Amino acid sequence: MLIIGVCLMMKEKLEAGAAPKDGAMSGYPSGGWADMARLVELMTGAAVCQAWGWFGLMVDVSSYKKTGCLRVNPENPDPEAIAEAAVVIRSGGTVAFPTETVYGLGANGLDPAAVSGIFIAKGRPLRNPLILHVASTRQARRLVTAWPAAAERLAARFWPGPLTLILPRAPVVPDVVTAGLPGVALRMPSHPVALALIDRSGVPIAAPSANLSGRLSPTLAAHVLADLDGKIDIVLDGGPTNVGVESTILDLTGEQPVLLRPGGVTLEDLEQVLGKVLVHDTAMPGTDTAIADTEPAGQESDPQGPAADAGTSSGVAAAPCPGTLFRHYAPRAEALVVTGDSQEQQVKVRHYLAAHPDRMVALLATAENAPVYQQMQRGAGAVHVEALGSRNCPEEIASHIFSALRRCDQAGAQVILMEAIPLSGMGLAVMNRLYRAAANRSI
Ligand code: TXA
Ligand code: MG
Description:
By secondary structure, the protein is an alpha/beta fold. The protein folds into 3 domains: 2-63; 68-249, DHBP synthase, CATH 3.90.870; 329-443, Threonylcarbamoyl-AMP synthase, C-terminal domain (Rossmann fold, 3-Layer(aba) Sandwich). It is built from 15 helices and 15 strands. Strands 1-8-2-3-7-4-6-5-9-10-11 form an 11-stranded mixed beta sheet, sandwiched between helices. It has a 4-stranded parallel beta sheet with strand order 12-15-13-14. The longest helix is centred in the N-terminal third of the chain and has 32 residues, at 32-63. It is globular, with a radius of gyration of 25 Å. Bound molecules: threonylcarbamoyladenylate and magnesium ion. Magnesium ion is lined by residues 208-209, 217.
């Protein structure tokens, strides 16, 4: 592929130089030494391109894997498929597998070389640590130096399930897993395929979401392959995941528990078990600490977001998840959160469409407003509507947001308008993801 690409580049370059429209070598005066100078430049360029092409090809071939895809029954996973995937894990390879939240990209969490394979496949910065997935509380306890009463109560109530606990790490946990941090993130997933794979592998499985770094988390095996085909060994295809957003992350290494990332277990659920839980600023929707790409031009930016007036900003000393410092959940299109109640959202969407008649706009709409948007006729631009679920049922919305954002990209959207929902319950996790997808911008 690369060689063909290089040849095409050279051909284009040579053709552009050899057959200039106005009869002169482009950018050069015509004739004699000027032509010679151009020729030398083309040949040097070609040689460099070719050398680079060979180098690229070697790197590509050496890291290329044929990714196998094994279908598994999500409720009752086939032992042969699990056994095959477990052999890959034990021999240092990478396996993508379904969890109840999103698909993870797993490797032997006690083998630094295997864990490095995850970072390479995803293009993930090494300073962004990984969650270790376990199949039992007993296995979790071997990975930490302290197991506080809060961990015991939370594990008893929410494991297996979408809750990740950060606890002081034991020496057996490799540095590459925690990015050198003193805490290790642990979670016992509830998906039967994930549990069977960890159990059969006999080791904790390090696994981030199985997407290219910074991109949308995968909720289908097809999403995994779209990002990672050729870069990983196996995908276990267990159909769609049901929670749809990642696990809740709770830091238990300090004096008080701190919510670092809202997810499948709600803040209210945690507080029922623990009493007051502090919320880290980065867990709040709309407080964007991400390393900013260039802020797109426009006056729609709302740098404060709802966190500014939600009154839950913790001011806690706990470190954020390193992952929250990177740009996340980015669709290709520009995304904007539409704030307000249903009526206000309709008005804002109408205004936006009227002001941008030529843009291909996609809408992530609540069930309340989707029928209104589906009726909308446009001039030159088009409207693509994704109905996610009722604004009063954040669980349903959560289970659809990542796949809907991918479909918006596939539909060729230039802009994605995403309706905000209330922050209670799973609404906090939904809005955290939407504001991140929008790089904190709203209308
Ligand atoms: O639901 C989930 O949690 C999924 C599934 C596959 O389990 N996993 C997932 O992993 O979302 P990932 O890597 O995409 O997000 C984990 C987050 C990152 O932001 C990372 O920085 C943070 O957890 N994290 C991991 N280990 C940490 C640690 N020791 N201290 C603080 N943050 C940590
Ligand atoms: Mg992720």
